[in-house]
Structure formats: C-alpha cells, structure tokens
C-alpha cells in the first residue's frame, strides 16, 4: 500500500547545511594552517597581554598539534555533511563546539581570530541543528 506523504523539504534549509559544510571545511583548513605554522615556527605567535594569568598555558607546539589534528578532522566532517547523514550532522555539531572551545583557549595568542572562529562555529551549530535534516531529502 502506497502512502502519499507530503515532504517538508526546504531549499533554504539545504542551503544552510551546505553553508555549514563549506564553513567546516574552511575552519578545518584554517585550523590546520595555524597548526602547521605553530609546529614549524613557534616564534611566529606572540602571546597577548596578561598571558601569565591565563588558565590554558600550553606550549605553542602543543597548540600546533591540537590545531592541526582538529583541522583535519573538522575538514573531513565538513565533506561528510554533503551525504546528509545524521551521524555527519552530529559529528559536525560536536566538532564545531570543540573548535569553539579550542579557539576560546587560544584567545591570548590571537583574540580577534579566536572570536571570528567562535562566531563561525556558532553559526555552523545553528545551521546543523535547525536545518540539517533537509539535505538528506535533496
């Protein structure tokens, strides 16, 4: 017996999900570049004012590995979002939250960049949670 079900497909929602996927790929690329720079030239990053009072005192090389590995993973998750799978959206939300937290801890080194990355991550989380399911219907 065929059941005629009306679809709630939204082109706008698909657009937001594609936007989130592309932003995740961009975030991953930028995170990886920041990690590579920290690994190969740890003198390039300058510690901001008040670093001695900051809770997250990691060596620049450690930050380099964190950024590089996280960048690779979030880039791959962005690619996976194009499949429309629930697991890809779930991983995307979790990784966006992790990247936002890492960039919060990175604020003493690059506060403006960290705030930009946190903002993009918040938009990615919103796009994936509010509009993510429609890309599977495309």
Provide a compact summary of the structure.
With 138 residues, the chain is mostly helical.
Description:
The protein has helices spanning 11-40, 60-80, 86-105, 111-131. The chain is an all-alpha fold. The two termini are 24 Å apart. The chain is elongated.
Number of extended strands: 0
Summarize model confidence as the mean pLDDT.
Answer: 78
Major sheet description? none
Q: How far do the termini sit from each other? A: 24 Å
Structural class determined from secondary elements: mainly alpha
Anisotropy-based shape: elongated
Number of domains: 1
Q: Which terms would index this structure?
A:
138 residues, mainly alpha
Summarize the SSE layout with pairings.
Blueprint: H1 11-40, H2 60-80, H3 86-105, H4 111-131
